[in-house]
Design a protein that fits this description.
By secondary structure, this protein is of the alpha/beta class. Helices cover about 35% and strands about 25% of the residues. The structure holds 5-amino-5-deoxy-1-O-phosphono-D-mannitol. 5-amino-5-deoxy-1-O-phosphono-D-mannitol (M6R) binds near residues 349, 356, 400, 401 and 607.
Length: about 600
């Protein structure tokens, strides 16, 4: 889970690399480095810590050259240190490599190479690549790469430079993302499009088993066996400013506030007319297949899996199709989950999460079809699935997923409507009512943010003393409880647990004392009365209660110490709105505690290792 970038051209190479790495810092940020071709040799500059440390070094040394590679790291093998940071070199420093992924057989390769006399400096798996290139290099980096890759098992996006062939970069991909950016008289490679967006809007999306041979004038895409591949040019439509903080202190708050727009984009042209009607032609599955589905399995991790819980609840209620949700890291070992009558729904913001990808592969191997709900067009999850439903939420940079979460739920809701319609499981009037309610969600999210955001911030301050939280919910808002607890844990580093409210009496109630704050989504609908009962149990034991309840609900005041009001919608859709206050609350608590919100410790945005 690292970020890689490469550049060839007339600009100041280290500045282009730094710019790219800044855009990729969300992929890892424990150390960074560059290698630049300078007058026939490679200058390698690396630093432990944030990118700013490397930037200072580069500003002092100003390496001049027309080609270079860079890397921002999230440690997998070997702790964060200057030695372990990339680029890694061969024995003599003629070849430099940056890599994202894991070389599974690196110990075996390392021992073999050491026995042949190669000297290793780091504890990383990556270092075997430059040594293999050194072993196979006979004046042609492309051929050396092809040969080296035959020895390697695992996942990689690897980019290499050699001092003897200035003006050449060779990169290869197997399971880790890689794009080649097309410029005029200059070219780029990177893990992800934002890294090159400032310089070009045209790129090739490199697939598994492919490599690119790049010069200032040319990009040749080939298979790793060396066969030419004809690739379509991918036109990037994102605006560079979309990926900036837009004047906010953190990406996270910017992205929380963007939710009305993100939700609007998710709906896009999918709900049409005054009727209204639903148009999800893009999902490509035939009606016959949708009618045949006997079971749905959600394939996702973390926040995306909670979005799957919320959407899955809606599918079960509307369509009567059972939905199983398990995190992808476990799911990939539950081999009896998939068959031909099962639909897997893979949910992933980045589209690059390794566990999710593994579970998708297993599902498809066993005959299931997979629908991908992702944010990143052309991502691995999108490409490895049978069909796609893009959430269109725009780039999400903050490590804590926010706008992607609510948009993922919304995309799931749309799919639930489609499935219910095709299977004849919903009355037309009910479907129209739900579609109308969905269309209102973006405005309701905006209304909530306008009316309640300051109140949520005040509550975060009022409860800043609290070091133990329980998040509760029932039915569709069980997911809100899970997501609320995760948000507080990951950015404010506070102990928080999410529970189905009905489970309290089976153990967690023992945790409730005056030191414990309980946040609970108690929206009007089927689960309302029972949820009130749970709040009573908590207050009887001295616990403090913050309720997320509907506007106009007077009853709730008797059961809660504080109330956050969200607009009223159908209970099935309510997790979209209830998800926003839990994000805002965690954000303000973390901000008041001085936490590093956009880059929480030990975490990275895109988890491309299992
Ligand atoms: O990119 P993905 O949606 O596949 O990522 C899945 C999780 O790693 C992610 O949601 C993670 O839990 C976030 N840090 C939550 O805020």
């Amino acid at each position: 889970m690292c970020g890689i970038v490469g550049y060839l051209g007339p600009r100041t190479t280290y500045e282009v690399l730094l710019e790219g790495l800044r855009r990729l810092e969300y992929r890892g940020y424990d150390s960074a480095g560059v290698a630049i071709q300078v007058n026939g040799h490679l200058e390698v500059i690396k630093a432990q810590g944030k990118l700013s440390v490397l930037a200072d070094l580069l500003a002092q040394r100003k390496p001049e050259g027309r080609s270079g590679i860079g890397h921002t790291r999230w440690a997998t093998h070997g702790p964060p240190s200057e030695i372990n940071s990339h680029p890694h070199c061969d024995c003599e420093g003629h070849i430099a490599v940056v890599h994202n992924g894991i070389i599974e057989n690196y110990l075996e390769l390392r021992e073999k190479l050491q026995a042949e006399g190669h000297k290793f400096k780091s504890q990383t798996d990556t270092e075997v690549i430059p040594h293999l290139l050194e072993k196979y290099y006979r004046g042609d980096l492309e051929k050396a790469m092809q040969r080296a890759l035959k020895d390697i098992q695992g996942s990689y996006a690897a980019v290499a430079l050699v001092d003897k062939q200035p003006g050449l970069i060779v990169a290869a991909r197997q399971y880790s993302p890689l794009v080649a950016g097309i410029g005029e008289g200059e070219n780029f490679v990177a893990s992800d499009i934002p890294a090159i967006l400032k310089f070009t809007r045209k790129a090739y999306l490199i697939d598994n088993g492919e490599m690119v041979v790049v010069t200032e004038q040319n990009i040749d895409v080939k298979t790793i066996e060396g066969k030419s591949v004809k690739k379509p040019v991918f036109q990037v439509k994102w605006d560079a400013a979309m990926a900036e903080k837009g004047g906010h202190k953190h990406f996270m708050i910017k992205e929380i506030l963007e939710q009305p727009d993100a939700l609007r984009q998710t709906i896009g042209q999918r709900i049409r007319g005054r009727g209204p009607t639903l148009n999800l032609e893009e999902t490509k599955f035939s009606d016959a297949f949708l009618k045949r589905i006997k079971k749905i399995v959600i394939i996702a991790c973390g926040t995306a899996s909670y979005a799957g819980m919320a959407g899955g609840y809606c599918i079960e209620r509307l369509c009567g199709v059972p939905v199983i949700v398990d995190v992808a890291s476990e799911l990939q070992h539950r081999e009896c989950m998939f068959d031909k009558s099962t639909l897997g729904i893979a949910i992933s913001q980045s589209g690059e999460t390794a566990d999710t990808l593994q579970a998708i592969r297993m599902a498809r191997r066993q005959g299931a079809k997979v629908l991908a709900i992702t944010n990143v067009i052309g991502s691995s999850v999108a490409r490895e699935s049978d069909s796609n439903l893009y959430i269109q939420a725009g780039p999400e940079i903050g490590v804590a997923s926010t706008k992607a979460y609510t948009s993922q739920i919304l995309a799931m809701l749309l799919f639930a409507m489609k499935l219910a319609e095709v299977r004849g499981a919903i009355k037309p009037a009910r479907l129209r009512g739900l579609l109308r309610a969905i269309k209102k969600l973006p405005d309701q999210a905006a209304e909530f943010l306008a009316k309640e955001a300051k109140h949520v911030k005040r509550l975060a301050k009022k409860y800043l003393w609290c070091k133990r939280y329980l998040y509760l919910g029932r039915g569709p808002n069980y997911s809100t409880a899970m997501e609320g607890a995760l948000k507080l844990k990951e950015i404010a580093y506070i102990d928080a647990e999410g529970y189905a409210a009905g489970e309290m009496k089976h153990g967690p109630l023992a945790l409730v004392t005056e030191e414990c704050t309980v946040m609970s989504a108690v929206v009007e609908g089927e689960h309302y009365e029972k949820s009130l009962g749970n709040l009573q149990e908590i207050r009887a034991r001295g616990g403090k209660v913050i309720a997320i309840a509907n506007e106009g609900d007077a009853e709730i005041e008797k059961y809660a110490d504080d109330v956050i009001r969200i607009p009223k919608t159908d209970e099935l859709l309510s997790p979209v709105l209830a998800g926003i206050p839990v994000q805002l609350y965690a954000y303000h608590v973390a901000d008041m505690l001085g936490c590093e919100i956009d880059q929480p410790r030990n975490l990275a945005k895109s988890v491309t290792v299992e």
